[in-house]
Design goal:
The complex is a heterodimer of chains A (about 450) and B (about 400). Helices cover about 70% and strands about 0% of the residues of chain A. Chain A has about 450 residues and is an all-alpha fold. Chain A has a single domain, classed as Formate dehydrogenase/DMSO reductase domain (Formate dehydrogenase/DMSO reductase fold). Chain B has one domain. The chains are: A mainly alpha (about 450), B mainly alpha (about 400). Chains A and B meet through helix 7, helix 8 and helix 9 of A and helix 7, helix 9, helix 10 and helix 11 of B.
């Protein structure tokens, strides 16, 4: 048994790098011209984005008949993608707000990036409700405003609650992210010599002068925003789960949906943060900032949330049997052994079984293995939504109208395209803003904090 | 490896009155319990179930808190981890609490009557799970598993008081990790067996999480009451202050919100979907005086603790924290009563000396148990490697 010294706190940043070197390292991508690799990556994501544009063009021109949706399955890739992307966003708020409230210092290296990812994921997600109404030029009707048509939004529909929940969440996440960036903008302002850059950074740093009073206000605002963001992040995925759970569709209507969706969202979000950060960490040489210890802790969170999701699957299955309601029982047997059994078992093996490997310490600390597991989790979480939505709808109460749903090429174009949309923003983010918080990282380097003992 | 700082802890004798008051409450309670069984055994047995789920939540909730401290590597709670450790000893008394229930079970659970089951298709389909043999096996197995984990975790923690061996912390981290999935499954099925199956037609997938949220609150509130009282009277180590209180208060506040979130989710989804096989459970709690009790639950369990603990100073003030912890513990009893009792008293709330007797019995039992364990053991894990960091903890 290896001996860990529990009397000492683990360092968040490896070694004791001079603070100056951290500044240099983190702002390097912003101060150098992008290299060939960046352009290659950007051309890939832009091509994917092109697919998105074509897929949407076809959809808007010919209508949603271009999709695979059929009579019982009126809701498929459009809502699956929406829930998937909203879920991805949740890790950002969990890392930046909830872990902050829990005083987990190890979040420092990954928080900024995760917050940025939240914003782009929510942006991607917000496109889907706008698309899936079928006539996007009427999206304005979602907003409750007095009008001449006498049309008033349906306040009893959870889809409308989605509009409010997601847009509030996006706004607060954006403010939270920006507030965290203010001191960093000021650092960049001091470092840069280019005129346009200096002006831009000056505007966005809001006259930050590193004074004691600024820091004091900053920390207060940060804490308050973290307090706001925490219930918000719960509310968003709760309401997304209401989209399904308030109905009486077997497999959708079950009371565990809200916490189960939130756990699943955090789970998939962590997997996505993990995947992208592992690449960034390698390319930008951030190995000592985003340490293996940090990754280890992220893997533990994936293990916990993955097991929560597994608990929910099992509980749903058990209660479906226990309820004695025939429709419920059929739905779950149909999920596991019906025409969509392949999707169900992909979901179970990716979401429940693969993260169980994280019980082993070696695997938690092995970068290539965790990368593969995180990919599995992302795949599995997409399939989870697919299973819930499609398997329930395709065989509902009325056997005479059962049908099998098959996505079309347009569905796939839009799905792939949404990744293009998301990753294009991520790439631009890595070149335009510091992906690690300059101010916070410097504050957690060993020796940066005063201590009552002489370290 | 750096040396472990010796925290200045001097074990002091606890005042005699804990034992005296505990004995009186326990005695009076026991008498009421026995008389209750003589007078109305069904009513007493329902109260006994409330007693069981109440004590199990304090015991399990406390053990969960101990395990979470090990797993998360938290330091702020180390100086008073002994208190939840003591409280988790309640798991030992659970089998004794259940003895009278087992002899009256068929009065409580419809599904135990063969003639009722034979006339009810739904109960027939549930029979592979809801039958007396399997029910007793499950309950016994769960209590056994809890005791195994209780025994190992607490043993290692006490051993460390003598040796200061850091590897014991490591061992406990591993045991705690294994405990978590076992805890999640057993606590959920305890809720299904002892609360949901009281109304065997009703079902809700979230009830396990609901009981979990209440249990953590109960364990935390009970521990906070003892911690604040001990620390204010100087029985713990020096240096524990408002920073530690704040952390306890913040957790109480967080779990109060979590409970409300879970309770709201359950209600909202059932109300909105409006399926008769689910709504009747809430409608039962809307009959007669139950309507007041049900609305009261929102205030008792959520609104009052929410506003009571919202501000930062209220979490740091020992008096406020003490009052709110007592309140939350009361609210947990209220909640357990709300879950179980409408199945017995269908027309309205029922509160008499039998109910009171069970409450006094529970308080007396906890006091005596705590007193006994506190006599034998240190109140602080004196050689825990995280102790000094815990004492030095500042927000």
């Amino acid at each position: 048994m290896s001996v860990v010294d529990y009397t000492k706190e683990l360092s968040v940043i490896e070694g004791k790098p001079p603070l100056r070197s951290l500044d240099d390292l983190i702002s390097k991508p912003l101060e150098t011209k992008p290299d060939k690799k960046f352009y290659i990556a950007l051309s890939i994501t832009l091509s994917m984005l092109g697919l998105f544009v074509i897929g949407l063009g076809l959809t808007f021109w010919y209508g949603i008949g271009m999709w695979g949706n059929n009579n019982p399955v009126g809701w498929a890739f459009d809502i699956v993608n929406f829930v998937f992307w909203v879920g991805i966003g949740h890790a950002g708020t969990l890392i930046s707000a909830i872990l902050f409230l829990f005083r987990q210092k190890w979040r420092t290296g990954i928080a900024r990036f995760a917050e940025g990812m939240t914003i782009f994921a929510v942006m991607t997600a917000m496109l889907f409700p706008l698309i899936h109404v079928g006539r996007p030029w009427l999206d304005g009707w979602l907003l409750p405003y007095p009008n001449q048509h006498g049309i008033w939004t349906n306040f009893t529909s959870p889809l409308l609650w989605d509009v409010f929940a997601v847009s509030t969440y996006f706004t607060v996440s954006l403010i939270f992210w920006y507030v965290g960036l203010i001191p960093d903008f000021a650092v960049l302002r001091e470092r840069t010599s280019g005129k346009v850059k200096k002006l831009t950074y000056s505007i966005f740093s809001l006259g930050w002068r590193f004074s004691n009073r600024h820091w004091n206000h900053y920390e207060m605002v940060y804490l308050i925003l973290a307090g706001f963001a925490t219930p918000l992040v719960l509310s968003v995925h709760t309401i997304v789960s209401f989209d399904f759970a308030v109905s009486i569709m077997p497999g959708w209507h079950t009371t565990i949906f809200p916490p189960y969706f939130v756990a699943g969202a955090v789970f998939s979000g962590f997997a996505m943060v993990q995947n992208v950060l592992l690449i960034i960490r390698k390319i930008f040489n951030y190995e000592h900032i985003i340490t293996v210890d940090t990754l280890d802790k992220m893997n533990k969170i994936m293990l916990v949330t993955g097991s929560m999701v597994g608990y929910a699957y099992a509980m749903e299955f058990f209660i479906a049997w226990y309820s004695g309601v025939e429709a419920e029982q059929f739905t779950f047997v149909n999920r596991a052994f019906g025409p969509y059994a392949w999707a169900y078992w992909i979901m179970v093996s990716c979401n429940v079984i693969s993260p169980q490997l994280f019980w082993i310490k070696k695997i938690r600390r092995s970068v290539p293995v965790m990368f593969v597991i995180a990919v599995f989790v992302n795949v599995g979480m997409w399939f989870e939504r697919f299973v819930i939505v499609v398997s329930s709808l395709s065989r509902d109460y009325l056997p005479s109208s059962w049908a099998y749903y098959k996505p079309t090429y347009v569905d796939f174009m839009i799905l792939i395209g949404s990744f293009g949309f998301f990753f294009t923003f991520i790439l631009l983010f890595t070149k335009a803003l510091p992906v690690v918080s300059l101010a916070e990282v410097k504050a957690v380097v060993d020796g940066a904090q005063p201590s009552h003992k002489d370290h | 490896m750096s040396s472990i700082h010796n925290a200045e802890y001097q074990k002091r004798e606890l005042p005699k009155k804990i034992q005296t008051i505990g004995l009186i409450l326990f005695g009076v309670g026991l008498l009421a319990v026995i008389l209750g069984y003589v007078q109305d055994s069904t009513r007493a047995a329902f109260n006994n179930i409330i007693l069981y789920v109440f004590l199990a939540s304090i015991g399990l909730g406390s053990l969960f808190l101990v395990a979470v401290e090990y797993l998360s590597g938290a330091v702020w709670s180390t100086p008073f981890r002994r208190i939840p450790e003591f409280l988790s000893a309640l798991l030992i008394v659970l089998p004794f609490v259940l003895i009278p229930v087992f002899s009256n079970m068929s009065h409580i659970f419809h599904w135990m009557h063969p003639e009722v089951v034979s006339a009810d298709k739904i109960l027939q389909s549930k029979a592979p799970y809801l039958n007396s043999t399997f029910f007793i096996i499950r309950t016994a197995a769960f209590i056994f598993l809890w005791l195994v984990f209780y025994f190992f975790i607490i043993k290692n923690s006490k051993k460390q008081d003598a040796s200061g061996d850091q590897s014991l912390t490591k061992k406990n981290i591993k045991i705690s990790a294994v405990f978590m999935p076992v805890f999640a499954i057993t606590i959920s099925f305890t809720a299904i067996d002892w609360l949901m199956s009281l109304e065997p037609h009703w079902f809700s997938t979230i009830l396990g999480v609901y009981y979990f949220s209440g249990s953590v609150l109960a364990g935390l509130a009970a521990a906070t009451i003892i911690i604040v009282m001990l620390n204010e009277n100087g029985y713990l180590v020096n240096g524990l202050n408002s920073n530690h209180y704040y952390s306890l208060g913040a957790l109480l506040f967080a779990f109060t919100n979590f409970w409300a979130y879970i309770a709201f989710s359950q209600f909202m989804l059932i109300w909105y979907a409006n399926l008769p096989e689910e709504t009747f459970w809430f409608l039962q709690r809307w009959e007669g005086t139950w309507i007041i009790f049900t609305i009261g639950l929102i205030f008792v369990r959520f609104v009052i603790p929410y506003f009571g603990l919202l501000s930062q100073p209220s979490k740091m003030n020992p008096k406020r924290l003490l009052v709110m912890s007592c309140w939350i513990l009361f609210a947990h009893w209220y909640d357990m009563y709300w879950l179980a009792m409408p199945n017995y008293s269908k027309d309205g709330v029922l509160f008499g000396w039998i109910e009171l007797g069970f409450v006094l019995f529970a308080i007396g039992l906890v006091m005596l148990l705590f007193n006994q364990l506190a006599k034998k053991n240190n109140l602080v894990a004196i050689k825990d490697p995280k102790l000094q960091r815990g004492i030095d903890f500042r927000l």
